[in-house]
Amino acid sequence: MYADRINSLPPYLFATIDEAKAVVKAKGVDVIDLGVGDPDMPTPEHIVESMCEAVRDPATHRYPSYTGMIEFREAVANWCKDTRGLELDAATETLTLIGSKEGVAHIPLAFVNPGDVALIPDPGYPVYKIGTQFAGGEPHVMPLLEENGFLPDFDAIPADKLAKAKLMFLNYPNNPTSATADVKFFKEVVEFAKNNDITVVHDNAYSEMVYDDYTAPSFLSVDGAMDVGMELYSMSKTYNMTGWRLAFAVGNKDLIAGFGKVKSNIDSGAFDAVQRAGITAVSSSQQCVTDMNSIYQKRRDALLKGLRGIGLDAKAPKATFYMWVPTPDGYDSMGFSKLLLEESGIVATPGVGFGEYGEGYIRFALTQSVERIEEAVARMDKLTI
Ligand SMILES: Cc1ncc(COP(=O)(O)O)c(C=O)c1O
């Protein structure tokens, strides 16, 4: 009944975890969920207010434009200039997305022919691989190893794969490892992409989630990046707007046009009222982002202290709301996450769910209060590991 592309899919990781969580919850366990990367705090009030106003305006009730409201795209172009010095032409170098997941899933349709290779990070956000497969492309895994700072090693890509490579996904600050990349690395990426004729998609979904005075550089701020790439930004994590489905792509105008062509044949754009709220988000004071980061930083520090206290080799991330922690001796990632759920009522994500090179790690998301995180650590302390 199903097409091969569906039959060959593994179950979506978070759906599987949800099922296991439901079983434990049904037994009456008070589950502490540090699994999925979905902010627990509400969307800031001024953004909600703006949406309420917009939704009452019948002008927002009609089909949106395929490429997105020009006012939203002008606002995001200004935000990119203010926050990272990018000079973008809103009309040709920006595109509204219905969440960056939508972008990631559809981009390969624009740039990958059946048989072409897309280079994808492993561990990584699972949609890079699935989106490539849906387009008939062949995902080639670039291992992200701790000894390389979780950056890919381009020299390790076999020549035959490189010859067929058309597209590369990157993501820094990174999910799930929380690694960051510097400008020097992005310069290498541009050179590699130019030498091998590869389109680069830098997924910057965690661009604003930063700690300890760190700022995450934009891939597009590097000389030559606008010739070879696009960058995806998302409202989801930055403004606690995961449910609203709003993101945007910026970058090379021919790439944006090609991607826009695919989208105009698939969806009918993001709800205008949501885009108006998006304008408010990017055009107002960014204090709400700073405030959220300081809350996440306190949670990070509480989890770090707790995990180290029980002997796990946890490190403080400079960005993202994830902690990527090696599993204790004797446990693989599935085994340790099962132990945490069944014995302690804690949900964490097994590293192997992000690819084979995620084995040996577990990911905690900082989506609970400091008190709940301390409670989680106290429960873990009782485990014999
Ligand atoms: C690396 C990465 N990219 C993209 C997304 C999708 O974000 P959204 O579709 O909400 O913009 C996520 C969500 O967790 C992510 O971790």
From TrEMBL:
| Pfam families tied to this protein | Aminotran_1_2 (PF00155)
* Domain (Aminotransferase class I/classII large): residue spans on this chain: 30-379
Its EC number is 2.6.1.-
Q: Keywords, A to Z?
A: Aminotransferase, Transferase
Task: Say which family it is in.
Answer: Belongs to the class-I pyridoxal-phosphate-dependent aminotransferase family.
Q: What molecular function terms (GO) are annotated for this protein? A: L,L-diaminopimelate aminotransferase activity; pyridoxal phosphate binding
- Protein name, as recorded: Aminotransferase
> Which processes are annotated in GO (biological process)?
lysine biosynthetic process via diaminopimelate
**Cofactor(s) the protein requires to work:** pyridoxal 5'-phosphate
Q: Which domain of life is it from?
A: Archaea
InterPro entries found in the cross-reference section: Aminotransferase_I/II_large, DAP-NH2Trfase_DapL_Desulfo, LL-DAP_aminotransferase, NHTrfase_class1_PyrdxlP-BS, PyrdxlP-dep_Trfase, PyrdxlP-dep_Trfase_major, PyrdxlP-dep_Trfase_small
